[in-house]
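hiii so um. not sure if this is the right channel but i have a protein structure encoded as tokens and i wanna go backwards to a sequence. like what aa goes where. can anyone help
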């Protein structure tokens, strides 16, 4: 029988009572060690259609204040520039009205491809259907809870690292840091399926850690993090005190607004450990580097995923199937933060992805 850690990372949901309630600390350490290794081997596509210049891609950005969304949009721009494509970005601002407006504006320009960055594909479904024959090939980034085609929507594929593996690795890191004694609060945004899937996966790992305590799961909209997190952080400190040793979040942005409150209340850096299941923002890198509360982030290769979005759109424009490539999970911590783009406050894999995609697009 697989240890529970192995089952969790494989994405298997164990039947009730079929496995032990706890798992091996050594197995968790192995998961974390694997996730912190260098990403030097290209495991993505090596063949596909050449790219024709002159195409236009519309990028529907959920909220450009979100570092992950912004970085993917920048990756799309970088890749498109290499093949002579134009990119237009439409910022939804994190609101329902903004999403509807952004879809309408994006489709009004008759783009050759549409990239949905950070918005839920199902929430956008009615607006996308209104596009009718104006709707071009659609690729998402973090647009659903899983990688690959988003069933029942026009989104041909959702580009993301496996969100459940990301979440479980994040929770495992807290277990390892605490030697199996973590007191955990999980932050999520229930408006998004991918966020809910991540937070549920993190909570499940903590519940199965015999000496750990899941103190609570707190639902805070990412778009409201700036206004709500200072108050929420004070409430949690008052309620849980020293029992609160670890915070797990579905995005680094929560910690942007929690850290100033922790500092103002005199919580020492070693008093609480912040770990994020995405996306590896520049402020997160700076906090990890400085030893300021945050100790880890399972960073998405955001620029590389922007290139993947362009590649998937190019395949769809040629009537070909998407690659369905899923990047490996990578945990950034103090030990590896100086490598693979870390000096620039990003995770940029040293796996030659730019050269690999250009070989495909330019028929080399």
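sure thing!! here u go:
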């Amino acid at each position: 029988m697989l240890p529970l850690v192995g089952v969790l990372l494989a994405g298997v949901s164990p039947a009730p009572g079929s496995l032990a309630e706890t798992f091996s600390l050594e197995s968790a350490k192995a998961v974390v060690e694997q996730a912190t290794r260098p990403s030097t081997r290209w495991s993505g596509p090596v063949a596909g259609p050449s790219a024709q210049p002159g195409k236009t891609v519309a990028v529907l950005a959920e909220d450009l204040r979100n570092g992950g969304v912004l970085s993917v949009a920048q990756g799309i721009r970088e890749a498109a520039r290499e093949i002579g494509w134009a990119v237009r970005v439409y910022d939804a601002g994190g609101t329902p009205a903004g999403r509807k407006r952004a879809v309408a504006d994006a489709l009004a320009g008759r783009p050759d491809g549409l990239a949905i960055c950070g918005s839920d594909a199902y929430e956008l479904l009615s607006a996308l259907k209104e596009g009718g024959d104006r709707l071009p090939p659609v690729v998402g980034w973090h647009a659903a809870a899983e990688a690959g085609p988003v069933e029942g929507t026009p989104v041909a594929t959702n580009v993301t690292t496996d969100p459940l593996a990301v979440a479980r690795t994040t929770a495992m890191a807290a277990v390892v840091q605490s030697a199996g004694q973590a007191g955990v609060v999980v932050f999520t945004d229930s408006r998004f399926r991918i966020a809910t899937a991540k937070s549920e996966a993190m909570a499940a790992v903590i519940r199965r850690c015999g000496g750990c305590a899941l103190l609570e799961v707190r639902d805070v909209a990412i778009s409201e993090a700036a206004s709500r997190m200072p108050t929420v952080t004070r409430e949690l400190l008052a309620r849980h005190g020293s029992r609160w040793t670890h915070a797990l979040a579905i995005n680094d942005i929560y910690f942007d607004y929690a850290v100033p409150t922790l500092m103002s209340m005199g919580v020492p850096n070693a008093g609480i450990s912040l770990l994020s299941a995405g996306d590896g923002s520049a402020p997160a890198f700076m906090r990890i580097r400085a030893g300021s509360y945050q100790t880890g982030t399972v960073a998405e290769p955001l620029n590389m995923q922007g290139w993947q979005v362009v590649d998937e759109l190019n395949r769809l424009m040629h009537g070909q199937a998407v690659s369905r490539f899923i990047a490996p999970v990578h945990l950034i911590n103090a030990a590896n933060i100086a490598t693979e783009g870390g000096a620039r406050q990003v995770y940029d894999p040293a796996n030659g992805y730019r050269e690999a995609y250009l070989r495909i697009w330019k028929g080399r």
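oh and The radius of gyration is 20 Å.
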